[in-house]
């Protein structure tokens, strides 16, 4: 491989010139090998925040990150493989019912998931609330479980796109997270390396999402769909609202409980709507003519959930952890819940212990927030509106502060706000 | 002092928000102390490349860099103090005759100077061609020499604005040198810390200058003049052409020889013109009603030069080093030298050994380029046009390549190009 002067490459990007394919290959490999210093990659990342990466640069950048590690393959499976990724939100436990629903329809769903940081939760943190369940799956077990059960939710191995792990840690401390091409390549490098031939993206927008502005979320969705398709992954994105939290619970055990409610046919309507919308996209990409609503109604999805949890050491019948302390916030008057801000709920759950400030922090399985009415629903003065849950009651006050101003009760229910905003299919 | 989250500050600058004075103080102090990591400052520097610093931010940034070190004072001197700084060019030995001329007129000129990097030479490298001369002057000797002789050209101590040294080294490897506020604060932090009450800037523009575009040079000049004045330093800038090299020599010993020619009343007219223009500005700022041309013509400036060189251990009568090898390039035809590119000459001198690629490299005292006609002057076919000088003749070919295309001989002398482009006085 040719060698380049990294300062020349930084200056080129800074001045708005395109990086060539060989330059990108060299940069990513040299950075991963420690030959390009952290401060040099930080300057490059900030230049990319301002100048972007065009489609060809982005595809090569992503492939170069993948090439620093291993590529998985699901070629030997008897089921069509399809994966899903959400950019993260509050109460976003959709993966939990979605993976077994899609698996129950005949697909294989290798769901490599992450942990929560800040006010958004992580799928692995949620599932760890289930006694015995482990996110660590040996490669051989992964294939066997995908064949037998159809769904695995596990931690990605360290071998997938190690450049991304190093670059993400750098971006996190240098104010360079907010770059659409860098976000897109970070997400997609792992998904492409994973070897899935099909991918459905849930790109969230609104106060509780990383992309607050809808236009940005749409741009990110378009960027990832284009990147996926250029890299041979059939990719579709739904842009969905995270202006208010999903469902009725934000936390770990409380979201698992809600997922089980969904699988029992009793979940909140917004969660069911989004889960089925994503399931239909996944099944279409997988080439399966199956009805996810039927898989849900028939109880087959619930059976798959139970098999999936057992397959990773969990006991689907075990009681979930319960918080040692709770505080109730009551409705101040009769009326309708007219507003519930996703960020406020997410920060409250985080402060109660459901989330972490640093990636090495532990989370409380039982901490979280329940809300007892959805937006547009009637409330009565004095009824419980929120229940705050934690094992560490000194956290209640700051959590309650986070909720203040984050909701309103009014005289009219208000117009319903759409959950599914846009579909982007390349 | 308050403490801040550096990522918040990077994001603020990235998103175009102003940094507050306390934020800037904290950032510079924490970076200098190693509490803000190099990669974080690199991202901040790149954000500043794109977003800039406004006048208030820049003043505080510069003061904060000064506050990381010591401040000198010339308050006890019997002469008015005035300093000069050039942004650097090819054949720019103006400081050498200028300092003794201004000193001979009654001012004190504490010229803290640097070394060359790349194709532009450094004043200290040039003077070190004089046998015995040393750039290291003890603080007590500095004051005594300024009182007795009036001019000292020496290396700044490590105590002046250490934040700037650390930040400059970082910018050099991260593609963040090219930022007008960062350049301005780097130059001015050392000049303000030095304690000079008056400063004349020679801001060069053209192919051989750091600022190739005149508009950029003017903006840098305005920025530095404003910064100096807000920090209590009476500052004037001349924007001058570096489209062609100054004088007739680029190198170290060859430029010293040219300076002595100027002081003997026989120097190239462009060098004399610029030297006297800068001297007049310096004397005006120093409040001295003296004629620098008279100081030159009378030989008093030459006497001051001799005293200045002796004051720092040098022998003004010693023979200067002579190159062991030379190669002559002849004029190909009769005509006029119509073009001579400063960058081509500078790179040729650099490649002959007069400059350095890395700051730890040595330079050759005798290496350099002489040109035997100025632009607009008549040349005859076969006359020597350039003399290349080096101790290491394997360098000739690449130096001659650098000159190729950098000059032209034509039928008409062409229009004279102005040397002094703009005067900026706040």
Hey, which two chains have the biggest interface? A-B, 24 and 24 residues
Strand order of the largest sheet of chain A: 1-4-5-13
Q: What is the average per-residue confidence, as pLDDT of chain A, rounded to a whole number?
A: 95
Structural class of chain A: alpha/beta
> What coarse outline of chain A follows from CA principal-axis ratios?
globular
In whole angstroms, the N-to-C terminal distance of chain A is 33 Å
CATH class of the largest domain in chain A equals Alpha Beta
Multimerization state? homodimer
Percentage of residues in helical conformation of chain A:
40-55%
CA gyration radius of chain A, whole angstroms? 22 Å
Work out the number of β strands of chain A: 13
Distinctive features:
homodimer; 426 residues; alpha/beta; Transferase, Pyrimidine Nucleoside Phosphorylase, Chain A, domain 3; Pyrimidine Nucleoside Phosphorylase, Chain A, domain 2; Aldehyde Oxidoreductase, domain 3; 4-stranded antiparallel beta sheet; 16 helices; 15% strand
